[in-house]
Design brief:
Helix content: 40-55%
Strand order of the largest sheet: 2-1-3-5-6-4
CATH superfamily of the largest domain: NAD(P)-binding Rossmann-like Domain
Number of helices: 13
Structural class: alpha/beta
CATH class of the largest domain: Alpha Beta
Distance between the termini: 25 Å
Strand content: 15-25%
Number of strands: 12
Radius of gyration: 18 Å
């Protein structure tokens, strides 16, 4: 039996095992490999697993360790999936896929799974969708510039959003802009978060905790704006259930990180096995 797993720290609350087992009806093993040290976790992968998902804080280290990388993964500079191949370990970034498919869900009913069923991992046509939805070139703010933020920034730009990066450390945002010059990112200080929240059509929030700038935003101001807010953290979100209800009832769309998790898993499982999982069962357990 093939064995897969997740490395990171902490990961005890991860829903990845539930998703994997539901998708493949326990045909394959899937374990949590929680280690404080990346080197230890990586050795456990090499010793006993065919492939692993990678979460914080190891996405940059996983990218650096891999023997080869997919084109998207190389562009982003962070990996959240490693598999063994005949020529060594290969890195992928399915966070990128998860962001795009989650945004498509917010734009149209079942847009994410519909696109994936039609095109798989080919996102070359995704830019054609935004003009008919917005009628103008939309703007996105990416809050947080860790591994997830890097993938989110690339995904938003790939879809055609004008993309601005904000982060607690401005130098980290500048590093991403320099690392991915093909996307022409702009960078703003975190103090501009409230103004950018007002201005942008899409906000992707990947900062692990709630920042004070969020309290300066009155969410009920955005009735009818069509704004999309996608949050990475699904276990301890910075936007409360009440916040989500306020946004959704006012014509905006708050998308939980669970959707992002679902879609990155969908893409990852196909890379792991070459098979399509039971997507309906995955949705049920999430």
């Amino acid at each position: 039996m093939k064995r897969f797993g997740l490395i990171g720290n902490p990961i005890s609350a991860s829903k990845s095992p539930l998703l994997f087992r539901a998708g493949y009806k326990e045909k394959y093993a899937y374990d949590l490999i929680e280690e404080a040290d990346f080197g230890t976790a990586y050795r456990r992968f090499l010793d006993g697993y065919d492939g692993i998902n990678v979460t914080a804080p190891f996405k940059l280290q996983a990218f650096a360790k891999a023997d080869s990388k997919s084109e998207t993964c190389t562009r982003i500079g962070a990996a959240n999936l490693l598999i063994k191949t005949d020529s060594g370990t290969r890195a992928y970034n399915t966070d990128f896929c998860g962001v795009i498919l989650s945004i498509l869900d917010a734009i149209m009913p079942e847009g994410g799974v519909g696109y994936f069923n039609l095109y798989g991992s080919d996102y070359s046509t995704v830019k054609t969708i935004l003009p008919s939805f917005y009628g103008h070139r939309p703007k996105a703010m990416i809050a947080g510039c860790g591994g997830a933020g890097r993938a989110a920034a690339a995904a938003a730009a790939e879809m055609g959003y004008e993309t601005v990066l904000v982060n607690r450390s401005g130098s980290k945002a500048l590093d991403i802009a320099k690392d991915m010059p093909c996307y022409d990112f702009s960078v703003a200080p975190l103090r501009d978060f409230p103004d950018l929240f007002r201005e942008c059509d899409l906000i992707i929030y990947t900062i692990p905790g709630k920042i004070p700038e969020l309290d300066r935003i009155s969410l009920d101001m955005y009735n009818g704006s069509g704004k999309i807010i996608l949050e990475a953290n699904y276990s301890n979100p910075s936007f409360s259930q009440k916040d989500a209800e306020t946004l959704n009832s006012g014509g905006c769309r708050y998308v939980s990180g669970r959707r992002w998790l679902l879609y990155q898993a969908l893409a990852g499982f196909r890379i792991f096995t070459g098979e399509n999982p039971d997507f309906a069962r995955m949705c049920q357990v999430l």
